[in-house]
Structures are given as C-alpha cells and as structure tokens.
Amino acid sequence: MTPAPPTISVVMAAYNGAAFLRETIDSVLAQTMPDFEIVVADDCSTDDTLAVLASIDDPRLRVVRAARHGGPAAARTLAMAHASGRFVAGLDQDDICRPDRFARQLAYLDDHPDVVLVTSTIEMVDGKTTRRDPYPDLVDPGEIDWTMELLNPLAWSTTLMRGEAARALMPFERDAYRFAEDFDLYVRIRAHGRIGRIAEPLVRYRMHAGGASQAHEAAMIASAAGVLADRHAALFGAEALPAAMLLSRHAASGHAPPDAATLARCGEIIAALLKAHGACAPGFAERSASQLWWRMARSGVRTGRYSVVAMARARPAFARFGDALRMAMLRDIMIGAARRAGTPG
To answer: How is the chain split among helix, strand and coil, in percent rounded to 5?
Structure first.
C-alpha cells in the first residue's frame, strides 16, 4: 500500500554547506508539526556535506544528488521533482526555523484560501549581532503586490506554498535568474493566488561571508533587475531594463544614487509605477513610495554625491516633506556638506 504523502515537503539546495547544515536540519526536525519530509538536493559538494547528511538518522530526510553542479535554482528544481507533500516549504542550508514555523504557516493558509504562498518576517543574524526584518509590518497581500513592483521584500527560507501551485511552475525555479530565482518564482506563482506574510520572525536568516547575498551582490542586482524588467516591459518598453537596474541598485540594494539626475530618474520611474499599479494598495503605495524615495535621496546627500538644493530640485511630487522630517536628514546634510567640501577640485 502506497503511503500517504506528507503534509509538507521541505526543498533544500545544498552546496558545501557542512558548517551549518546540521543545525538547519535539526531546526526542521524540531517542528511542532511533524508530518513533513526534507528533500535535499546536493549540488556536487566538495566538502563534508554528504557526510553530515548521512549522519542524520531520520526517515523523513531524503537526499538526491545532482549529476553536475548547476547552481541553487537547478538544485531546488531537482529537489522539487522528488517532493510529494501537499505543501512545499523553501529553506536554505544555513537558516534556522522556529519550532512553530510550519504550524503557524499552515494555519494561515487554512484561514486564507485565496493565498497561495505565505512567508514571514525574519531575524537577521550576523555573528553576535541581530537585526530585525527590513519590512516588519508588510503583511497585506495588496501591499506585498505593490512592494514587488519595486523590489523583492520576501525571504526564500520563510516560504510555504500550496503544492498544486508550486508544481504548476515549469520549471520550479529558473536558472536564467540566478541569485534572484526566488523573486522570479514569486512573480510567477502570483498568477495562481495571492501572497501573504506573517509579521513574526519564524526564521533566523544567517548573514555570513559565504552566503549568496554577501558573495554575489552584483549578480543579484542584475538578476533582480531582469525580473523587474520582464514585469515592466509593457510600461517602459525599451527602457524597462535600465529602469529596473536603477530600482534594483538604489531602491532594493541601498546604493546611493551617484548624482541628482539619477535620483530624479528614480523618482520618475516610481511615479510611473504609482500611476500604473498604485491602486493595488491605496494609501500604502503613496506612503511607501515617498519613504523609499527619501531613503534614496538621504543616502546620496549623506555620501556627498549631491547638495540638498540639487536633491530638492529632483524631488518628485509624491515625495512628501513630512517623510523627510521623520528621518535624520539634517545630520545627513551636514555630513554630506563636509564630505563635498573635502573633495578636491
């Protein structure tokens, strides 16, 4: 008799993850909801990853080995091909689940039948330093839709999705968007239902030098821009990719605009997106767009890229002065002025 499929399949790509993998898997084995399987696709690791996996004596863990090293998207797609759960959870090899993660997310999906994928906030851990999620209050599906017009606010290791929707994605993840394959998945799965989020950190997200977010930032910026460019092709036409690169670099990754003209162009792009898509989150879209633009403006002023006068001239109509007053703008102006004064020629 064929056993019933588990409630949840955890799909995980593993590559040279021996240092953290055991702690990650132990956090899954400690879940209060025990009906799951863990499918780990080893992406041709050259360290002790396979030995660590072999040392874990639990029938819910299954390991499949890639024939060649293909990157995280290929490995997750391989794991997904072996997953049989009614729901699919994403988890990276170095992140830690809170014991009630699965129970909380299943309850959320039961209560929200229109939601196809639910995530949560994260607790970011960098050595002994802990930081909170950059979007702690982002939970409304409409507000998530708007935010995804600008950047990716979701963490892969917090995802739980309905299995039928996950299996409808062909392929599950696309390597063409390497290092932003999760963002691409969220955009594609949105066609099958809404995306929700729980405002509690159900996962500890580990920041370390070997992590993809630290080692491959330039590629992540370019790939995320590719996702946005595809999404905005009808709106921006031939300018979709340049516009997406500006959003990915300055809005999502926090790099200061190099000059006031770039800051002004970022404002024009956000204004166009507000006009086209802001109705999905009335009120929130305008507030968040204003706050985002002022954060970008502030970073350029602080680093001395442009003066406060140039910033004021670049300000778009949606950027409210009240949002600037809530930030430490005066200090940034003083620091930036000092840096410009000390710049030769």
So the answer is: 50, 15, 35
52: number of Cβ within 10 Å: 19
Pseudo-torsion of CA 87, 93, 94, 95, nearest 10°? 0
- Rounded to whole angstroms, the Cα distance separating 21 from 206 reads 12
Residues 6+ apart with CB under 8 A from 192: 116, 162, 164, 165, 168
- What's the token pair of residue 22? 């055991």
Tens digit of pLDDT for each residue in 208-245? 665 555 568 999 999 999 999 999 999 999 999 999 99
- For residue range 39-79, list pLDDT tens digits in order: 999 999 999 999 999 999 999 999 999 999 999 999 999 99
Neighbour count for residue 338 (Cβ, 10 Å)? 10
pTM above 0.90, yes or no: yes
> Which of 210, 137, 215, 225 minimizes the C-alpha distance to 177?
225
Q: Is 122 helix (H, G, I), strand (E, B) or coil?
A: strand
d(C-alpha 57, C-alpha 60), whole Å: 9
Q: Can you tell me whether residue 41 is helix, strand or coil? A: strand
**Closest to 244 measured CA to CA, from 234, 233, 254:** 233
Instruction: Give the pair of three-digit tokens for residue 187.
Output: 């955009």
**Matching residue, tokens 């696309």:** 174
Q: Are the CB atoms for 80 and 88 separated by under 8 Å?
A: yes
Q: For residue 316, is the peptide bond before it cis, meaning its omega torsion is within 30 degrees of 0?
A: no
Q: What is the pLDDT of residues 81-126, one digit of tens each?
A: 999 999 999 999 999 999 999 999 999 999 999 999 999 999 999 8
Closest CA to 244 of 269, 219, 268: 269
- Dihedral of CA atoms 156, 159, 161, 165 in degrees, nearest 10, equals -20
Angle at 196 between CA 21 and CA 184, to 5 degrees: 65
User: To the nearest whole number, what is the mean pLDDT of the chain?
Assistant: 93
Question: Residue 334 half-sphere exposure, CB side, CA atoms within 13 Å?
Answer: 4
pLDDT at 311 over 90: yes
Query: What is the amino acid identity at position 86?
Result: R
